[in-house]
Design brief:
The protein is of the alpha+beta class. 33% of the residues lie in helices and 16% in strands. It folds into 2 domains: 162 residues, 3-Layer(aba) Sandwich (Creatine Amidinohydrolase, Chain A, domain 1); 274 residues, Alpha-Beta Complex (Creatine Amidinohydrolase). It is built from 12 helices and 14 strands. It starts with 11 loop residues before the first helix and ends in a 6-residue tail after the last strand. The N terminus is likely disordered. Bound molecules: manganese (II) ion. Manganese (II) ion binds next to loops.
Length: 450
């Protein structure tokens, strides 16, 4: 087992190249589009309606891809069309809350860091920003100072530029995602162990967090910890405090963040020794094998949609061999049967966002290509490119409303419903890894650790 301390990566050098390349490309784009400067806000605290508390702070992803300062609202990154970027760091006088210290980390020396604590000082600092200026961030974070009055809010061209480029990661970003995988794997192992001792969903989640000293709010997304039938609820985030009896199957989809970059990993387990349990375990093993085989075939230039369709054929073959359906994979895909067992897409872009934007974007200009109507939930519909980090997450689910629909249709005859009924109490299966696409082939960032 990997200890948390072994996952410490030195980001100093890779960040150095990351920021240099990012700054150069962005400033060239800004010059071409005639921007004098770009201000990116970390974000603002969002008040809860008629309350004196705020929603948990989630940093602006456009900010996070420049520097891993993820917990401080009201900070502004200023990128001039030439020269060094500045960070206006919010450090108020506050006796109620913990005030973050001025950052002194591997990334700090790449910015001129200017501290401010009130509007008067921010007004003075921002007054030095001249020329045509763009602002990226929520409207609530736009500073209410005179200098900001003419800034252009969330220009579509700039957003398209960042959304498209975000898909391909620098070495620093890949290292961050891999480190996140390493930590998530430790937590996943603890969760699996808790499941095998009969723990409840709530207890399994607690084991996950405790294994890596994590608070729930630090997760990149709400953990999915689903026992038995709950595995069929795709975004199940309710956590039962009572263990079901019997506890048969476990689907976990849970991550970790390093430098604001997410790991997004799913695994499935079974501890039921009946014949039906053996069949479900067999499906887990077969899907796992197919997923790895598919990852081995991913190539630069390949449309991700083709991989998605290949997975549906493989899934159809698995269901056919296991006696759940009466036609092979090719026919099952053509008949649309496999979508009843796997309604979601094969995967998505992964990075500063769990589902990075730009998955349907075909070019820098922002041209969108939606996936075909039969596969509406495919979040990634562009050719694989060198440096992309994606998830590959096939599943097999026994989702009541989808099965009812299939049963009521003319395709019902192609299904062995007795076999399907045996598996309903097990919910579903999802196997999800994070994968780096490169000219040398796909590199799995999850499997070395889990
Ligand atoms: Mn995912």
């Amino acid at each position: 087992m990997i200890k948390p301390s072994e996952s410490c990566v030195n980001f100093d050098q890779s960040y150095c190249s990351h920021i240099a390349a990012k700054l150069e490309a962005t400033q060239a784009y800004m010059a071409g589009a005639q921007w004098g400067g770009l201000v990116i806000a970390s974000g603002a605290l969002e008040p809860i309606f008629k309350d004196d508390y705020h929603h948990p702070f989630v940093v602006n992803p456009y900010f996070k891809e420049w520097l891993p300062l993820t917990g401080v609202p009201n900070c502004y990154l200023y990128i001039p069309v030439s020269g060094r970027p500045s960070l206006y760091f919010y450090k108020p006088q506050d006796i109620w809350h913990k005030v973050s210290a001025l950052p002194d980390e591997f990334w700090s020396r790449h910015f001129d860091i200017l501290e401010y604590g009130d509007e008067a000082l921010l007004t003075k600092l921002l007054a030095t920003i001249k020329g045509r200026t763009a602002f990226i961030g929520p409207a609530a974070a736009l500073p209410s100072v005179p200098a900001a009055a003419d800034w252009q809010l969330n220009d579509a061209g700039l957003l398209n530029y960042f959304n498209y480029r975000r898909a391909c990661k620098s070495a620093y970003e890949v290292d961050s995602i891999e480190a996140a995988n390493q930590r998530a794997a430790i937590a996943h192992k603890a969760a699996a162990e808790a499941f095998h001792t009969g723990a409840s969903e709530y207890e399994i989640n607690r084991a996950y967090l405790a294994a890596v000293n994590l608070r729930e709010a630090e997760l990149p997304y709400g953990n999915i910890i689903a026992l038995n039938e709950n595995g069929a609820i795709l975004h199940y985030t309710h956590m039962d405090t009572e263990a079901p009896s019997p506890s048969r199957s476990f689907l976990i989809d849970a991550g970790f963040s390093v430098n604001g970059y997410a790991a997004d990993i799913s695994r499935s387990y079974c501890r039921d020794n009946s014949d039906s349990g053996a069949l479900f375990s067999h499906l887990i093993a077969q899907l796992d094998k197919a997923q790895q085989q598919l990852i081995g075939q991913l190539q630069v230039g390949q449309e991700y949609l083709q991989a998605h369709l290949a997975m549906h054929r493989m899934l159809g073959d698995i269901l056919y061999a296991a006696g759940l359906i009466k036609v092979d994979g090719e026919s099952a895909l053509a008949e649309g049967i496999t979508s009843s067992f796997l309604p979601h897409g094969l995967g998505h872009l992964l990075g500063v966002q769990v589902h990075d934007l730009g998955g349907w974007q075909r070019n820098l200009a922002g041209q969108i290509q939606e996936p075909p109507a039969e596969h509406p939930y495919l979040r990634l519909n562009r050719p694989l490119a060198d440096g992309m980090v994606i998830t590959v997450e096939p599943g097999i689910y026994f989702i009541e409303p989808l099965l009812a629909q299939l049963k009521a249709s003319t395709k019902s005859l192609l299904v062995d419903w007795q076999q399907v009924d045996r598996l309903r109490p097990f919910g579903g299966i999802r196997i999800e890894d994070n994968v780096l696409i490169s000219e040398r082939g796909a590199r799995n960032l999850t499997r070395p650790y889990l």
